[in-house]
Amino acid sequence: MGNFPTTVKHCLSYEELIQDYPWLARWLQEEKEMVPTGVKIQLIDMLSETGLPVIEATSFVSSKWVPQMADHTEVLQAIHRSSHVRYPVLTPNMHGFQDAVAAGATEVAVFGSASETFSRKNINCSIDESILRFEEVICTAKQRQIPVRGYVSCALGCPYEGPIESTKVAEVVKRLYELGCYEVSLGDTIGVGTPGSMAKMLHSVKKEVPSSALAVHCHDTYGQALANILTALQMGICTVDSSVAGLGGCPYAQGASGNVSTEDVLYMLHGMGIKTGVDLSKVIEAGDFICKALNRKTNSKVAQARGDYSVHCRMKKINT
Amino acid sequence: SGEVRVNVVEWGSGFLMSVQDGASAGKTLPERVKIVEVGPRDGLQNEKTVVPSEVKIHLIDMLSEAGLSVIEATSFVSPKWVPQMADQVEVMMGIHRRPGVSYPVLTPNLKGFLAAVNAGAAEVAIFGAASELFSKKNINCSVDESLQRFEVVTKAAKEAGVPVRGYVSCVLGCPYEGKVSPDKVAQVAKRLYSMGCYEISLGDTIGVGTPGGMTEMLQAVSREVPVNALAVHCHDTYGQALANILIALQMGISVVDSSVAGLGGCPYAQGASGNVATEDVVYMLHGLGIQTGVDLPKLMDAGAFICRSLNKKTSSKVAQATCKL
């Protein structure tokens, strides 16, 4: 099915990096600094003004595991909730779910894995056990009419197991969907996927779950994200996960990039005539804000180019 | 935590080809893709640091060992304009020419062509533009005038039995004119092809193109030039290169230009990236089951070497991701 990088074997040595941090890898979790609550709130508020329909706000996971998300209640309660936007939060178990609901959450998300080893290493249980855990959450959420989104990690490869059978991905996706997730997002957790493996995986998954209930969550660690997203679009997927400024590195490859940047995705979609309802320049502004706050450069190529390009164009106008 | 979901709610143009499900996504793609490695010329030309000849020669030799079949070696342009390429003759004479590998050089005019042949060049390349303003600002003449100049070169090359590759820049946008008409690109490509260029490389010079524009442009050009004589030269300034290359492959293109380690920034947007990294292209192609003849680890070694020499970080994500153990 094409190459699989030898680097994945090497990445096993990064176990230490992640053993204290279950993978619930939201982008701020990879940021080493603790980001002040006020900054998170402002970021979400800025994103709410861009036209984005869904913004994943925080994670109701134990702050022992993910200190970055310790202020989950405060964030959820302080953000200005736009009527056009949904603000799902991560809830790995009943405890987190109850806290989330108490804090005002109206949509939640659960995270499964297509890889047994990854599941054990990240949340200390098998895939089956994790799904049993989620079943409880999903059932309760259903009763309260709270929609649940499912995520499946390692859909295109695992840092421990290497390539993952597309039929295994399909099996896990199907279980989450049948339990009641309205949508399942397929995550290329370590970004090793290519259009070849993406097509193969989607082919298997689409046999079990309708495209309208699927999303892709591509990482750009190997620069393949936009090509993979394009492939997914061609196969009928119309929901794409991304991260403003491409924040969130890869915990499995030190120094490498992780999430694909929302700005770059939007640039591609708009260039293709696809409507998203999102104002790209406002997303760039939000990206500028969070990068300044974190004191780091954006991972978005569009943001990098725009900043300089507009200066260049202005200069050219003066000179000609 | 700020991760966002873009719900794509409506399709725009109908160009989004419905690739047949699953593995047959591979059916519309070429079995083999030729990579034209432009790092030593296009890449280094756009790097600020002037690199010693031995380094250039070693880089080209490493790239030859990595399995690349076309490596753009240098440029026979006046050193006054491009100091990085002042050692053109030394480089041409110094490289180890691996059998089966082609080492084209840029020749903007007859003078450059003659100097190139004298130095042992066996293939040359000429550069046209699809934008009038770009042509004027870059080479001080209109597109027509430049094509007339090139005709002199292609004639001489034909007589000498030297193949000529043509480049068209600004095919998806111009830093001065903005939008560029696909028909204009097709016209320029057609003229270069008719005057004897065996292949035309279509360059998204400022990287503004997306799969939408790429499709439109290729449709127009392939009406005038056979698709097997076309190549794409995508810049990654807006992160669109691999997606654009994928679309080009789906439309029958099987020659892709790229630059080891993504060498060569964008001269029109300071600090922004330029050329797409060969490592990232090869990774995608191999993942698609497409043969390239390239040995990716050896290619990454070449990338690591030139980055050390330039004292800069690689722009290749594949190279960055690979653990440095």
Automatic annotation (TrEMBL), chain A:
UniProt entry keywords in alphabetical sequence: Lyase, Metal-binding
InterPro entries in UniProt: Aldolase_TIM, HMG_CoA_lyase_AS, HMGL, PYR_CT
EC number: 4.1.3.4
EC class of the enzyme, as a word: lyase
Pathway stated in the Swiss-Prot or TrEMBL entry: Metabolic intermediate metabolism; (S)-3-hydroxy-3-methylglutaryl-CoA degradation; acetoacetate from (S)-3-hydroxy-3-methylglutaryl-CoA: step 1/1
Record-level GO BP terms: ketone body biosynthetic process; L-leucine catabolic process
Entry's Gene Ontology molecular function annotations: hydroxymethylglutaryl-CoA lyase activity; metal ion binding
Record-linked Pfam families: HMGL-like
Residue span, Pyruvate carboxyltransferase domain: 17-284
Annotated catalysed reactions: (3S)-3-hydroxy-3-methylglutaryl-CoA = acetoacetate + acetyl-CoA
Family per record: Belongs to the HMG-CoA lyase family.
Record-given protein name: hydroxymethylglutaryl-CoA lyase
Gene assigned in the entry: HMGCLL1
TrEMBL record, chain B:
Domain Pyruvate carboxyltransferase: 33-300
Pathway as given in its UniProt record: Metabolic intermediate metabolism; (S)-3-hydroxy-3-methylglutaryl-CoA degradation; acetoacetate from (S)-3-hydroxy-3-methylglutaryl-CoA: step 1/1
Protein family (similarity comment): Belongs to the HMG-CoA lyase family.
Reaction catalysis annotation: (3S)-3-hydroxy-3-methylglutaryl-CoA = acetoacetate + acetyl-CoA
Gene Ontology molecular-function annotations: hydroxymethylglutaryl-CoA lyase activity; metal ion binding
Record's protein name: hydroxymethylglutaryl-CoA lyase
Enzyme category, top tier: lyase
Gene: HMGCL
PROSITE patterns tied to this protein: HMG_COA_LYASE (PS01062), PYR_CT (PS50991)
Record key words, sorted: Lyase, Metal-binding
Species of origin: Oncorhynchus tshawytscha
Leader peptide range in chain numbering: none
Top-rank taxon, per record: Eukaryota
SUPFAM superfamilies, per the entry: Aldolase
Any one GO biological process: L-leucine catabolic process
Classification via NCBIfam families: PRK05692.1
Key word Metal-binding present: yes
EC numbers on record: 4.1.3.4
